[in-house]
Amino acid sequence: MHKLCAFVLGLLIFTDTYTRAAEIKILSAKAPRQFLEELAPQFERATNNKVIISYDEAGIIRRRIIDGEAFDLTVLPAGWDEIRAKISGGPIGIGHTDFGMAVLSNVPKPDTGSNDAVKRTLLAAKSIVYTDPQTGGIAGVLFARMIERLGIANEINKKSKLVAGALNATFLVKGEADLIAQLSSEILAVPGVQFVPVPPDFQATVTFSGAIANSTKDAAATKALLQFLTAPDAEAVIRAKGYEPG
What is the CA radius of gyration of the chain? Predict the structure, then answer.
């Protein structure tokens, strides 16, 4: 914490932004909430700047940007070409996590070591929850692609509940599903569940990156925030939330 504050203070003095407070608006996908809600207040305390964060599924955030909503920084997992005209420079990786599934921790971990095994596991599940792929939520998109490639999309969707903006593993704990799909960082945020990997053909590492709007009102302060989120001293927070930095 102290190192982070010192890092930002030095950066802002160097960029001559410390003497005037800025208001920085972030448009972010849902999953990074886990580390942003800890790191953003640290940045605020270190700089006197105010950070306002709006979360939604990734596809909805991209649509809001395309439709002209004002922002200073966006944090997204993919789809950068769609908003290339709205950002300054390329996105910078903040943290990455893996796509997978989960079951309750007190039940045997299902066999998902091969395509045939995961197909059997999915067909045997009585109820499944995953993120609605129409929202652009990356885990939902990946799961939808997986069941489509396995040739079982119709069977799985008949017994699935599509959600948005949720920690899907909470449906396991509440007894409303016996298998869910989401990112490992979101799965591990829910006590009482265990992560279940998908077969190699469907494994994916999802990187959440930050990019600065080309219309930001305070480029120096926004750049300082992005550098704060990607600084080595932020890595402990990012790891604690189930991500690997970068």
Answer: 19
Place of tokens 């109820």: 127
Question: Tens of pLDDT along 96-135?
Answer: 999 999 999 999 999 999 999 999 999 999 999 999 999 9
At CB < 8 A and 24+ separation, what contacts does 192-195 make?
Answer: 192/104, 192/105, 192/106, 193/102, 193/103, 193/104, 193/105, 193/169, 194/102, 194/103, 194/104, 194/105, 194/109, 195/100, 195/101, 195/102
pTM above 0.85, yes or no: yes
The first and second tokens of residue 212, run together, are: 């600065």
Token representation of residue 206? 């999802």
Encoding tokens for residue 98? 């893996």
Q: Which two tokens stand for residue 132?
A: 């609605």
Q: What is the DSSP string of 66-79?
A: HTT---SEEEESS-
Neighbours of 10 (CB within 10 A): 11
Question: Topology of 2-96+208-245 in CATH?
Answer: D-Maltodextrin-Binding Protein; domain 2 (3.40.190)
Choose the CATH number for 97-202 among 2.160.10.10, 3.10.450.40, 3.40.190.10, 3.40.630.10.
Answer: 3.40.190.10
Q: Please state, as a whole number, how many other Cβ atoms lie within 10 Å of the Cβ of residue 37.
A: 12
Say if residue 218 is exposed, middle or buried (CB neighbours under 10 Å; 0-12, 13-18, 19+): middle
User: What are φ and ψ of residue 224, in 5° steps?
Assistant: -60, -40
Q: Name the β-bridge partners of 28.
A: 55, 75
